Amino acid sequence: MTAAPDLPHLATPATAETAAADDLRRAINRQFGRSLHIRTLDTGSCAACEQEIRMLAAPHYDLHRLGLFFTPAPRHADLLLVTGPMLRAFATAARKTYDAMPAPKLVVATGACALGGVYQPDAFSHGSVEQVLPVDVWIPGCPPSPLALLQGLLVAVGRLAEQAGGQSFVAAGSA
Amino acid sequence: MTAVRSDTARALPAVVTAAEPQDGPVGVASVSAADLEAVTAELAAFPGARLADLFAARAAGYEPSGSGVAPADAAARQARTADPVTLRAVWALDHDQRYLITETPVGGSRYPALSDIAPAAFAEECEIYEQFGIRPAGGKPLNRVATPPQPDIDLPRLGRGPDEPPQDVHAPHVVGGQAFEFPFGPVRQVGVESLYYGLVTSGEELVDLYLFTWHKHRGIEWRTQGQTPQQALFGVERAEGLGAIGNGWAFAAAAESALGLDPGPAVRAVRGVALELERLYNHAAAIAALCQACGLAVGRAAAEIALEQLLRLNAAVFGHRYLFNVLAIGGVRRGPDATALRAGLPAAYGELRRAADALLATNSFVDRLEATGVVTTEEARRLGLVGPVARASGIANDTRADHPGAGSAAARPAVADETGGDVLARLNVMLAEAAESVRLIDAHLTTDGLAHAAAAEPGPPPRSGVRSGLGWAESSRGESLAWVELDEAGRISRARLRPAAVRNWRGFDDACRSQNVFTDIPIIEASFWLTVAGTAR
């Protein structure tokens, strides 16, 4: 057995990431009791958006410390993070995934393809996510960096609060 | 162009390899449909030759009528005749630093079945059937590749579509009547691409596995028609975002070859730096995914620290975390920031090396990888696998070393070579390649004129008329090929893209079948580190 590797970078960096992260933590704490679950959906991306989404869980960004979690089950998800230009061949699977999510729920269109900036509507693709799913938040970028994704999630949490109509998700008296 | 018949086929590789270097590294030979089978057999037996790609294009000058989609009426379908099509097989002669393209005009709806001689060609035969409606003789079932089964979705084709739809893939065999199919996907784990697995299992052991990727087919080749090469490069980079440089360079080299442009050594060195940076971050990402698949949270975090540093280094050096918009046809859009690169690379690579050393000293991790997902040398050769997967199975192919020229910078790598064929061998190949990439980046940075490569003067005026060219590059996943044909106006009439993922997904099925269980699949998938986007382009 060898010594564990020395990992100085695991310490939290004091940067803009921290400030954005603090705002996000407060908002989610208030609305979702430190438990917002995200399901990702690839509707024809080039795999770069997926790589950036995976980086959200990496030590530099560490989504979990903010009370955000990825879930493989749409039935456990509050938020659908959609990448790609919504290919026609995939639209049915996308609708089924969305329908399986409980309300209140959000759709976040992620990356230039999802926003309609790469593919025109044509025989292959709807051209953008909003042609098929009701999009609440758009995150630009090709691909959006993890910091841009965090900022988009922050906006999305605010929208979720509006959609829930002031309904409290935290029992009275709890932190 | 040399015309070749079955009786002169034996001499063909010798003719190609004996050609003077100024004739270029790509030989073109015309082969009639009647002789194609014999010529293929001769080439397949030639030492160091492998069938690298097979694709079709409409015969030059032929204008199709109609949409390419078969009419619903059976009588109308019968009345249609096949479009004249040119079939091209790309042979890599790895011992002789040459590629050889055979061109075969096909008039009817049949051509000789090449996959009987070179099994690697089967997926391409399926693709050609879907896009052009011509099928190999022998009547073997052809699988669905890019066209979705939904009847309301009619995708445009590159040529005249087939009269009968291709067959859906199903398990070719069932063990003792006890196996069943377990469908999984296309919406699967979080943060990964959509992919449909058909798992055939008797409970725990994986009897068979097949993949559907048609729901990610974006028609990138179809989209390039009528575009200039520079316009098309935007889409080519985004065909497979994690291979933007590898695939983009192959495409740019193909277009430059067609146009008669030579971008020069400084431009190739800049592309070489970008290519090695792409390889480094991809290998780091593969190692992180491997740890995740094995449930090693600390190892994953350590690898992801290195990965994030490498992505930030890309942004500092070339202005984009995934190196988009670095390439241009005939040059590069920007040179590297050599100061940032020299300052940042040792730390980022050191982080990766540290994570790797800790992982390789963890016996439980190494045990998990040993004898998992084995691809034998014989299988790898039969399926025409490329890149780290082939190199881990005892096939030391690397276009950077085997095929210098348009797709390579001046400095050559020492080719990593392992023989185990399992996940551990693939990990070792990736680590050896990462070390070699750091050395190559250093060598590329010393190339004369590197700092001014982005501002280089355009070369001689491009050639005119109908012309075509082949390009290649060693992407992080292996040999990426592209072939481009331009019309008189300089617009693309046919672009063929063959990223390494197209080849290596074929080996994935076999690797998963070899005495593995369900929990091995994510580990094997991480060790292949392929993208669905690369094959469903």
Describe how the helices and strands are arranged.
The complex is a heterodimer of chains A (175) and B (537).
Chain A: H1 16-32, E1 36-42, H2 48-55, E2 68-70, E3 79-83, H3 91-99, E4 106-110, H4 112-115, E5 137-139, H5 146-163
Parallel strand pairs in A: 1-2, 1-3, 3-4, 4-5
Helix pairs in contact in A: 1-5
Chain B: E1 2-4, H1 12-18, E2 26-31, H2 36-45, E3 49-58, H3 74-79, E4 85-93, E5 98-106, E6 110-111, H4 122-132, E7 135-136, E8 180-184, E9 196-201, E10 206-212, H5 220-224, H6 229-237, H7 244-259, H8 264-294, H9 297-318, E11 327-328, E12 331-332, H10 338-360, H11 363-369, H12 377-382, H13 387-392, H14 399-402, H15 423-445, E13 467-475, E14 478-486, E15 492-498, H16 500-513, H17 520-528, H18 532-535
Parallel strand pairs in B: 1-2, 2-5, 6-7
Antiparallel strand pairs in B: 3-4, 4-5, 8-9, 9-10, 11-12, 13-14, 14-15
Helix pairs in contact in B: 6-7, 7-8, 8-9, 8-15, 8-17, 9-10, 10-15, 15-17, 16-17
The oligomeric state of the chains shown is heterodimer
**Low-confidence segments of chain A, ≥5 residues, pLDDT <50?**
7-11, 165-169
Class computed from helices, strands and strand pairing of chain B: alpha+beta
How much helicity do the residues of chain B have?
25-40%
CATH topology description of chain A: Rossmann fold
Query: Largest sheet of chain B at a glance?
Result: 5 strands, mixed
Mean pLDDT of chain B: 84
